[in-house]
Design brief:
Four copies of one chain form a homotetramer.
Chain A lengths: L7 H10 L4 H25 L1 H32 L3 H6 L1 H8 L2 H8 L3 H8 L16 H40 L8 H12 L12 H17 L1 H14 L8 E3 L6 E3 L15
Antiparallel strand pairs in A: 1-2
């Protein structure tokens, strides 16, 4: 379906979904600030001292932002040429998830559950990414990460197996009296250690446990090299080898050739007479 | 010895060891779920609260899984054209190790020892790797890691020497009153620090100790670059430089051109008639 | 405006701003030692035990260094051909900021505020970088980092979004009774975890919290690969591929040969007669 | 001075310093085990429980090893064609340092000082590196690390400046009541944080301190990419780009050429008729 640029729906679509008109850009900038501010309000509301003092103001702001985002969501649904496509798209779902929790709070006034649902609100932050001007760079990163995914998965399966075995060994070696109360708990420790996070809430107490930990740590030190290697290689394959890999354009067919070509490899046109 | 595809042994071999027939794939999927579930059962059994409540169920499941894996192991031995080769292969040993500890538990009903042996059971998890479809990617990773091994070994020997000396210096500087009760304990601290794990169970208390720690940490920060560099370079050597690197050779001058070229960029010869 | 090399201003300019004359180098070396010593004095003054014992000496030294740096600053302003350009330049501002806090201390003798301002003094340390002879290497690093900045920014925005969502999830899962007292506090925990710092002042206590933490840690482990990949690729693009990459061109067929070749490997033409 | 292979000195030189004869290799293997065992003895002696029980045995072993190493050191001095060159060489100094502390212990029987000196003994471990067969790989690593040193130095100076400023800011923000008792202490914290070690002995308590820490951590996360990038690029420049960069040898002059060369670039001999 073509967009009628003169109808209200067409104009709204260009403003809300596009960023190439003045009004479209203004809308996006407004939206960015609204999202950032609303996230800030939710964060501040969670701080006990601030909540106690400014509860009324923060709650009003939250109601205001939710209404604004709801209107925006309805306008998006209305103005999109294919509302269902939008509704089922990634950002359509995110847009919906960023307003739903508030209304659930109204329906279910139970304190504790409310808090659990509140978290999904935060997902609206992802919408900020839509506004980034670094689309090209994001694309290079995305390509490299997707190309790495299969290798990263193999690597992750190896890590998970490793962590399972290390966790069990430590559970047996250290035992419940040193805080390794179960295999899952020991696996948690193994992950904390192999990723070099090292909280220190669980630490090996026995000499044998410390020896095993040392091996695990040095192993983790070497293992961290693997995902880095994968991503680096994939990234270098997504980009030209050298910033100096300058190109010459064929005057006949317009295709780019390496600078030192004699003939266009596309149409056979002679490049440097 | 050739496999007789019509005999029972031949059919079993194709189902159990192969993954290219429908039944073979079904068998592998079943096995995957059995392994994951049995590992989960062992993990859950180690959690005190769950063990107390569901001890009977978990124990029955463990008996069931062990019987299944034992039958599977015997069938593998029976169906393999060269049973001894399988028995001595890596996965043959892993398969055996994943059932033996249970039977040892039956023979030796002593509580504490039992727990120590239980850990080997977990090794059966490695069998999951057999089922991965990412064989190619695993191979690239494996090649790169093997090619890195010698350099990583040189690096590791340097780290071990370094950690020994740092550990001794800290033992002398901090002393037993600050928790550095022996050289091995100080080496453990040095490894925790240089790998950037940093539990915090042992920390330098004296100003000199903190200065030395700072140097060790910054050193560790720079040193972490070395294994990463090794693996990255080896990995980039295992893969074609560019995803676009497939080449076609010019029949006229012999120069390599990108696969999608129509003409040789060197002599102008038409490539794909 | 040209510099009159015989006037006092011209001579001062060459000594103070230049490093290619004997006096200019001597001035820079003096300045380096003065800066390092004055920073050391400020650091020592902050240590309670040293401050109590040597307060008079340290304070006198600080007065002395500040006077020296003030005279130096005035001489720079006087001798520079375009004082305003210097005044507004990066190092002009740093030079000013490295003397101002002391005078503010004199005007405002209030204890606590004084301490707050003192910190800016430390910025004078940056001037040391002026004296480094590793300008070329600093330039290569700078080029690579600037070229990486846009990609790093995209990456950082993703991390910030991720950390916000993880922080909220953990606030909901762990709750105030386990130390996750607010969303900002939980975000702080998420950053501590995903960067693999892992202080251990906040750690997950509930099983679900530990599972989520484990996922976050493994994610952080894989994510750390991304900035490394970005910087490595940009750095490799800033440098020639091989230390042996210097080439000589064959005068007969035009192909590039390694510098030490005697004959062209393509057409057999003798290269260095 | 040429070595007389038939004199005692010449024979000793070949055995002690060389590794290409049967006796030379045997000597090196013996030495390796002696060094490893003696280091182990020193480590075990530092463990209080072991020292109390086996003090006599461990002390005797230490005396024995020191005598052996002293005789070895004297034989090295005697057999080397240029004793002074050996005495002043890196390994000459290490060899001496690995026996001196024991004799100092005999002269100065004071308990505490003795411990301080004991540490230098550990340096003998470095001699193990002499025995490694991975000389080539060590050389590649060494070349890459040396080539990286200047860039790493620029990087390290930047880090030190950064850590100084961050340390001062945190000293002002957190203050003595939160454990940041002095600027050096705060710098120690900044290094612990930026290197992602994160002991947790000092942690920010104020909201502003936690915000600054978060920025420092994310910065450290990005900064860790820089040394890795430097080393990776230098390492990739020390090694051939591809394992497939196979070579063809010129039948006329013996020099290796890239596989696709038509003529030897050294002597002009035609390679592939």
């Amino acid at each position: 379906m073509a967009i009628d640029r003169n109808s209200l729906r067409g104009k709204l679509f260009i403003i809300i979904f596009g960023a190439h008109t003045k009004h479209g850009r203004q809308f996006d900038v407004f939206l960015l600030w609204f999202i950032v501010t609303s996230v800030l309000v939710v964060c501040l509301e969670s701080v006990p001292s601030i909540r106690n003092q400014y509860h009324g103001l923060l709650h009003s702001l939250e109601v205001f932002f939710t209404i604004v985002f709801t209107i925006e969501y309805l306008l998006r649904l209305y103005s999109h040429p294919k509302p269902l496509t939008y509704f089922l798209s990634f950002f359509g779902i995110i847009d919906l998830l960023s307003i739903i929790p508030f209304y659930l709070t109204v329906i279910l006034p139970a304190g504790h559950f409310l808090v659990t649902i509140r978290i999904i609100r935060l997902l609206r932050v992802f919408r900020i990414l839509k506004l980034t001007s670094f689309v090209h760079h994001a694309h290079v990163l995305k390509t490299a990460i997707i190309a790495s995914l299969q290798k990263i998965t193999v690597f992750m399966l190896t890590i998970i197996s490793l962590v399972l075995i290390i966790g069990t060994v430590m559970y047996v070696v250290e035992g419940e009296e040193n805080g390794f109360t179960s295999i899952p708990q020991s696996i948690y420790w193994a992950i904390v250690t192999i990723t070099t996070v090292g909280y220190g809430d669980l630490t090996p107490q026995t000499p044998l446990g410390q020896v095993i930990s040392s091996v695990v740590m040095i192993m983790g030190y070497a293992i961290i090299a693997v995902p880095t290697g994968i991503v680096t290689v994939e990234m270098s394959r997504s980009m030209p080898v050298s910033r100096k890999a300058e190109q010459v354009e064929c005057l006949s067919c317009g295709k780019s050739m390496p600078l030192n070509s004699n003939f266009c490899s596309n149409c056979g046109h002679q490049l440097n007479e």
